[in-house]
Automatic annotation (TrEMBL):
Transmembrane annotation, as ranges: none
Domain HTH bat-type, chain residue ranges per copy: 161-212
Organism: Natribaculum luteum
Name used for this protein in its record: Helix-turn-helix domain-containing protein
PANTHER family per UniProt: DIMETHYL SULFOXIDE REDUCTASE TRANSCRIPTIONAL ACTIVATOR
Domain of life: Archaea
Keywords: Transcription, Transcription regulation
Chain segments annotated as coiled-coil in the UniProt record: none
Domain HVO-A0563 N-terminal residue range list: 5-150
Amino acid sequence: MSLYEASFRVKHECPYREISERYPDLTIREWYLSECQVLEITSSEAPTDDLLEEIDGLGTILHRSVDESGLHVVTQSCLCSLEESIIDRFEEYNCLYQPPTIHRQGWEHYTVIAFDEGDARALLRDLEDDRHVDVLAKTAIAEQQIPHSMLAPVDQLFEGLTDRQLAALQLALESGYYEQPRQTSLRELAGRTAVARSTYEEHLRKAENKLLTNAGTFLRLVTATSNDPLRVDRSGTAEQHAD
């Protein structure tokens, strides 16, 4: 089974795109995290006062430097609702967004991976209804060509987990609960917290369920074209390959 990668750029109303249009030497890389938005802003040219003022209005400055290599700024801001966003459209068409979004010279650049070429085509047709879309590349790719470390942003893996669920998961992991053989029990783990065993177990099971659910899309992508680690013999019995 082939996967499909589509790279394209779009134009529509967006403050970051508009800034990149006014300052052609500027490149803005945009990441969506669980509760915030991070921008990396670079330019090989020395910034003007007007540009620095605009950057100051984008959010909290985490880093700023201007030297012989040019401008480098990292900002963080509150994450506005992504409802009706282009990212939501990717998900509607079963396309996996590959961050970051890159804003340069008045264009927003995106890359997505689809499990079916038809999904990629349908996504692009939908985007063309209300914005200018320029397709840069659309190619079939093999799973092993994809760097697995880039598939799953950490915030997406842990999306929906509460602080208590994360704490329960971290305690279990650091205490050897998931080792073989296990180094601790649920009773012992709960005894190290201020909650009852049943409450701790509820937090842990919900954390495990959410984590595996979030990882499902990325697991499907990683295994899409790999050799089957479980082979079914002629009798219909699944045979596991040796490690």
